[in-house]
Amino acid sequence: MLPDHEQLILIARSCGFSHVGVVDLSGEAAARLAPAMAQYRRWYSAGYAGEMEYLSRHADLREDPARLMPRPPEALRAIVVGMNYLHEAAQQWQQNHSMARRIPQRAVISVYARGRDYHKVIRQRLLKLARALSKQWRHQEAQFRACVDSAPVLEVELARQCGLGWRGKHTLLLNREQGSMFFLGVLLTDLPIAPMDAVMDPPQAPDGHCGTCTACLQACPTQAFVGPYQLDARRCISYLTIELKGSIPTALRPLIGNRVYGCDDCQQVCPWNQYAQQAALSDFDVRHGLDRATLLELLQWTEAQFFERHQGSAILRIGYERWLRNLVVAAGNALSSADCPAEMKSALMTSLRLHRRSASDLVVEHIDWALAQGLQDRHPERDRHH
Prior knowledge:
Layout: H1 5-14, E1 19-24, H2 34-45, H3 59-63, E2 77-84, H4 90-101, E3 108-109, H5 118-136, E4 144-147, H6 155-161, E5 166-167, E6 173-174, E7 182-189, H7 215-219, E8 225-227, E9 230-231, H8 237-243, H9 253-256, E10 259-261, H10 265-268, H11 295-299, H12 303-309, H13 319-335, H14 342-356, H15 361-377, H16 380-384
Parallel strand pairs: 3-10
Antiparallel strand pairs: 1-2, 2-7, 4-7, 5-6, 8-9
Helix pairs in contact: 13-14, 13-15, 14-15
């Protein structure tokens, strides 16, 4: 006997997941992904993916997830799970985020990246879920494929189709009871579990649960949203600080402010995130004081310390060069801010000059820009008398 929905929910929660749903992707049912896939192709063709060329690969697998399985499955289900990652109460997080953005010498790191790498956490938990399902229902020959972000599946669309939420105007999944501060994972299986289908809205529901609210669109520092449900990644701070390997466009640098890895602004202002829940797992607890670190403190880390302290963290993937590049841009913005104390500006300029002696060409170019911001901030009348 296969698990009913209540049993599946209990098992998923025992594995640390806060949400679970099931979508039937067998045979003709897989065609339900076609509208979302067409939208995905239009988005990519418009150039909004920037340098993320990997998103164009394996489009056939996104459209037909059965091809991800080791053997052609007779039945295919997508078990879609969510995992909360906030390390503090929603209201406290929103207040702290707003405050940190207003302190130019602070380093703001996206909440999801302050703890352990979610790819590792969710993959391990998905495999645990697969073992539990296999063992409890004695389906030793059952096939499973754990997919976490990097695998070519349409996670948000699958989550929407099994009733875990709807796609918000900021393109992320929103849930009435838990906002958007959770990760998604997908466990593909040939176990014919009964689907947990939702009442289907269109992939983009202009009159859906977001209503007329445009808070996320207006809050974006770089105006990366070309419209509701449409993100131009080339302007998104998460893309600029994580995915972009080269030089950050000069015109966008001042807009980044003190954000050094990712950006949570569109989520922080979302009214639904007043219901966001704290993480159940300690994996997402803050490491190395990354929720309150200053730019100067992080600039003082050596390359060895970067790799040591970010071991097991999502931040590790950008490497030390891009980490420095991001810190340097934020330091330049602090140097041009009237809210940054003079002694901190002096210390930041000293640190930047020290880094310039051994930095790569990419980082040096950003350091020169940052130092120029500090020079522009100097008051000509005041300097004439010193």
